[in-house]
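Recall the central idea of this unit: under ordinary conditions, the amino acid sequence of a chain determines the structure it adopts. In this exercise we apply that idea directly, starting from the sequence alone.
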Amino acid sequence: MNAGLRIWYTLGMVVFVYSAADQTGKASKGEREAADAKALAVALRGEGLLVLDAAEKKGIKAMINFDVGEMMARVRPVSLVEKMFFARNLGVMVGAGLPLTRALDALRQEANNPKFKRVIADINAAVVKGRSFAEGLRLHEKVFGDLVINMVEVGETTGKLTLVLKLLANQMKRDHTLKKRVRGAMMYPAIIMIALTGVGTLMMYYVVPTIAATIKELGVPLPLTTRIIMGISDLLVHYGLYVAIGVTGLVWLAWRLLKTEKGRRLFDTAILRVPIFGPLVRKFNTARFCRTLSYLSTSGVPIMKSLDITGGVLGNALFRDLVRGSAADIQKGKPLATALGGNPRIFQPLVIQMIAVGEETGKIAEMLLRLALFFEEEVNGVTKNLSTIVEPILMIVIGIAVGFFAVSMLQPIYGSLGSIGI
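Accordingly, the structure predicted from this sequence is:
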């Protein structure tokens, strides 16, 4: 028995009607008895056949099979790292002369993610049936995205599939590195703020009521700040459950709002105005724009389609709208630099100037790649120094919060001591 919870009751074997293909792509059909579809696939693979389709002909088996571990693994999304290794290893295998179907089958067997195993198997089955690799990828467009599919399509058309897969693997690696650095930089301030909120809540719930009882016994006038803190404490003590429900509801509402186009646009506009984090978001999106458009141009994707795909991979709505909207200006005959230079708050003048030079010299892809490397190093530098910059700001915030609390709660006590002449 495996780690998951597995319950079964088997009355017999099942007869499957299947279609399969050998390593040359020759298809065949037949019937075979097996415990399940997986056992059928294993048996046929031992004979050098790849199952394309299988269905039960008649069942003499009643089976309930529930595996919690497997179920959770199947719903786990395909990570960027898994797709990166897939593109890199497939490029190496195809470049070494291995047939695409055999390379895909080998990668399917190596994959640890059950969902990704099924995805690769579907792609391989499509290729065996005579469809292109890009068409197979399009069956799982949500997994791979427009960037991968369109670059592969151009790579197959131009005979540069190995180069395209190498570029894709490099793009995914850079994306993963940038995202990891940005998340790591955001982690420290997030942890500090969560800890500060938790400590403040505990003080309001346990410490303030005790101090408030002492202050009330003194019978002295209370300052506004003291009344505010005591009011918040009373609210948490007597209506803590409702407060928790309300906060949860607000978080859920904010999350739903960010899922809408208008809400996301408002957030993306606001984040660009925030000191420290705004420039970081700007540099991150600029680096991703430059590298993606450079690779699409190198692969031979038309400029209009390249801009649409590039806009789709950018995380900030303002960058996305500007990049996709520039296609209309290019159709009117404007250069790319002019089309992108309409909003200097999005792309820095350096980016526009370098793109203009690339267009004049016919080396736009090379210029974009240089810009990508430059801004990736900028992001790296900012994320390395972010904790140094944010730490004193957080210390000031914590100091102000602690000082406000101390003054508000101790002021009435000192006031009462003064009134009795001590």
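Residues 14-69 form one domain.
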